[in-house]
């Protein structure tokens, strides 16, 4: 049995005095969060030397200056991140991304609804908001590994799509604002050929759901590759109900 540790980690309060709290901004809280996450990761790596370790962390900022997030880390697996930023909105994406943990060292997810207001009146949408626990972890983790792949899992409603190509797709896969790489096309081909899915690459084969406004385009880590993966509701349901299909899906995604 793997050794599991659950940390309910609350970010150190920056309030102190009211005047000081007013001076603290999201950027400072974000930097403090990255520093704490770096320490946490070092501890996990040390513990893993003698244990089969899976560590879980839910991190919340008491001042609401950064959006909370859920983190799972294990030292085994590829240096990649499986990410479900809209767990309450895109049904089954949490379970699908979590299934990639083991193939990947890291799983990330939101803990508040994407439409929850932040301290500055914006939405707590991890796909768009800059100051979040998950973004802080991604930057911290990327600074500790040679290269990292990020697989962000989303869900779409075929009835809301504007083109026939999008409506008839099982998967729409892209790399946000960057051109489609050979690796992206290999993943899509695997989904098409091995799973017999209708997988389309943005912008080569479909013009919607390219993830071009995703915050990970702005973070633009030099040693990372970002895969924006949109799944139809029908496919999401099949994946959580059919272990065989899920296994094949994982193989294609983390090629």
Describe the protein's topology.
Blueprint: E1 3-11, H1 18-23, H2 26-47, E2 53-61, E3 69-73, E4 78-84, H3 93-98, E5 104-110, H4 133-142, E6 148-156, H5 164-167, E7 171-174, H6 182-195, E8 199-201, H7 215-219, E9 224-232, H8 233-241, H9 243-253
Parallel strand pairs: 1-2, 4-5, 4-6, 6-9, 7-8
Antiparallel strand pairs: 2-3, 3-5, 7-9
Helix pairs in contact: 2-4, 6-9, 8-9
Task: Characterise the protein shown here.
The chain is of the alpha/beta class and 255 residues long. It has one domain: 3-Layer(aba) Sandwich (Aminopeptidase), CATH 3.40.630.40. It has a 9-stranded mixed sheet, with helices on both faces. Helix 8 crosses helix 9. The protein is globular and about 45 Å long. The two termini are 27 Å apart. The N terminus is likely disordered.
